[in-house]
Amino acid sequence: MAGIIIKPRSRIFHGHDWVYASEIQKTFGNPNPGDVITLKDFRDRPLGTAIYNPESQIVARRISRRTQSLNKDFFERRIGQAIAQRESSGIDPRLARLVWSESDGLPGMVVDCYGDHVVLQTLTLAMYLHREEIAEVLVSLLSPESVILRNDSPMLAAEGLEVEITMLHGEKPGPFIVEAPTVEGGVKFEIDLLDGQKTGLYLDQLDAHTAIAKLAKGKRVLDCFCNQGGFALACAKAGAASVTAVDSSEPAIAATLRNAELNGVVINAVKHNAFDFLKHCEDQYDLVILDPPSFTKNKKTLNNAMRGYKEIHLRGIKLLDRDGILATYCCSHHATRELFLQNIVSASVDAKRSLRMIASHGQRLDHPVLPAIPETEYLKGFVLQLMPSR
Ligand code: SAH
Known about the structure:
Elements: E1 3-6, E2 18-20, E3 24-28, E4 36-40, E5 46-52, E6 58-64, H1 72-88, E7 95-100, E8 109-114, E9 117-122, H2 125-129, H3 131-142, E10 146-151, E11 164-169, E12 176-180, E13 187-191, H4 206-213, E14 220-224, H5 230-237, E15 242-247, H6 250-263, E16 268-271, H7 274-280, E17 285-290, H8 302-318, E18 320-330, H9 337-350, E19 355-362, E20 380-386
Parallel strand pairs: 1-4, 9-10, 14-15, 14-17, 15-16, 17-18
Antiparallel strand pairs: 1-3, 2-6, 4-5, 5-6, 7-8, 8-9, 10-11, 12-13, 18-20, 19-20
Helix pairs in contact: 1-3, 4-5, 5-6, 7-8, 8-9
The chain binds S-adenosyl-L-homocysteine.
């Protein structure tokens, strides 16, 4: 088998599964992009099997410490193990991320399940080349009505892949309803997996919706960056006194309003830039939720991103009434847990208020973190309560 020899001190010797171009000592046997290759150390000892794409910065991603080919058996075994992990974590596999790339030993493969419909993303060349086989395995394991290939991530370009949205099994599904078990009685969402604007849900936040809804009874709630209303709907169903939801996207606000109707609750959904909304808002709230998109995809813009977080934290804290609660989330891998918490502290200092931490959140267990691959950890959240003035 063709392969590469990896330089000493590369990250793979510390438990990572990626090989960067700068870590390659030598390539042998002329592998083709998308091939399965063998990895060796500088003393010619085997390090396992990887998928190969010299067009990407990450030239090789290890799939096994042994010799392994990409075939139906392999996909069946790994996808089966991933589903079993969700089940044993108490997650209903019918509304979950069933496969999450490196975290499930399937680099570049992402599988989301929404009831009878399955969405596949193939973000590495090798997985893309095997998409039909993967879809067959998904059909045999899950018997879904449809399998959609939804390759529209900005990450595709790094692997030289094109945007492509197509059916791999079954008919195109129209909009349909799923029920998330986030609060008693469930929260219904209308899902449209093929409409360009809307996709599925933020599955990684479903546990956070549950946790925050438990704090919402009788409260005036503000959900900033609400998307389709995940937090807002859960809080309204849990008995919030009032719920305001803000998002800058028109389709997101329309979806929040439709979902509110579907669930028989009232949400004041406002299309607005959340920064401006927070700046000009004159109301006070008992619970403010901040769940923005990632403000930075790289280290270079981290400082700007932290300024953004600081601004919304400061303004969010100022809108809180006595012993009000701030729930704030960060989905940027580069802003670490420590940095993010420090940012909240710094905002509270400027606001001359003291905060007590009442909960700390991470990504749901269907987005598992591998500590040896730090890139798998991205989502953190803190729930903090204002202490009486002092
Ligand atoms: N809280 C949601 C997920 C939020 S995703 C949930 O739990 O399901 C981030 C959202 O922020 C997206 O819907 C996006 O449209 C919105 N957004 C991005 N920039 C924004 C801005 N400046 N002001 C308001 N909303 C913004």
